[in-house]
Amino acid sequence: MNPNNNTILILGLGNILLGDEGVGVRAAEELMTQDLGDGVEVIDGGTAALDVLLSRQKGYKLVVIDAVRGGAEAGAVYKSRLGGEDLAAAPERTGGVSLHDMGLFEALAAAERLDRLPGEAVIIGIEPLRIEPSLELSEQVRASLPLVINSVIEEIQDAVYHKQIT
């Protein structure tokens, strides 16, 4: 797919070698098996948000899926929407959004400097139970994956409804 401003980029972040830390990648793998329509690209970003964001043109819709420590029970799903000024200020934010805060927000700062900032970003976070060497998600986090997938599909449908993608 040729990245342009009429796309939705679904970016799964995480390290699959650390159990629940890999939930974003696992969600991306599941989404890659589905027909999400034209204008939607799903990428397993691993821990390389910067590389992915700098490969885009500005204006696209970004949906990030990642493990997030927010203090709720394991498997809880969070959603945070950033647009316009929020995205420009994102590098100044501290803590609480993602286990990849520095990587994601540094990537957004670099994208802004290079005029490649998304028009909107949605962060879908899943509260991890354990971050330790393992290739498996905990039962609680694995059980939340259908909710995460549905949340991503709602974002795609919303973009189509508002004609953000063609």
Q: How would you sum up this structure, described in words?
A:
By secondary structure, the chain is of the alpha/beta class. It has one domain: 3-Layer(aba) Sandwich (Rossmann fold). It is 34% helix and 20% strand. The chain is built from five helices and five strands; from the N terminus they run E-H-E-H-E-E-H-H-E-H. Strands 2-1-3-5-4 form a five-stranded mixed beta sheet. Strand 1, helix 1 and strand 2 form a beta-alpha-beta unit. The chain is globular and about 40 Å long. The protein starts with 7 loop residues before the first strand and ends in a 5-residue tail after the last helix. About 7% of the residues have low confidence.
Compile the SSE list and pairings.
Elements: E1 8-13, H1 23-32, E2 40-46, H2 49-54, E3 61-67, E4 77-83, H3 85-89, H4 101-113, E5 120-126, H5 139-161
Parallel strand pairs: 1-2, 1-3, 3-5
Antiparallel strand pairs: 4-5
Q: Which H/E pattern describes the elements? A: EHEHEEHHEH
Describe the biggest sheet?
A: 5 strands, mixed
What form results from the Cα inertia axes?
Answer: globular
Low-confidence stretches at least 5 residues in length (pLDDT < 50)? 92-102
Strand order of the largest sheet: 2-1-3-5-4
When the domains are counted, the total is 1
Total helical segments = 5
Structural class: alpha/beta
Mean pLDDT: 83
The CATH C-level class name: Alpha Beta
Might you state the CATH topology name? Rossmann fold
The CA-CA distance between the termini, in Å, is 13 Å
The radius of gyration over CA amounts to 15 Å
What is the percentage of strand-forming residues?
Answer: 15-25%
